[in-house]
Write a structure and sequence with these properties.
2 helices; single chain; 64 residues
Length: 64
């Protein structure tokens, strides 16, 4: 049995918004997918950074 799940994001845009968006990003699906991937990569970095800061704050607080 395959447990892979796929999710769909739906955004409602009026015609004017859609045309403006497509002018800026001619391949909107690829652009959105790239932005999601970039966000996930930054999120992983942000979690690692937050953990390092928390560890540093804990260490400095205990040595004061």
């Amino acid at each position: 049995m395959n447990n892979d799940s796929h999710r769909v994001i739906s955004i409602s845009l009026n015609e004017q918004e859609w045309q403006a968006f497509v002018r800026l990003h001619p391949q909107p699906v690829l652009w959105l997918r790239e932005k999601i991937q970039e966000s996930l990569a930054r999120g992983t970095d942000a979690i690692a950074s937050a953990s390092a800061v928390a560890a540093a704050n804990t260490t400095s607080a205990t040595t004061r």
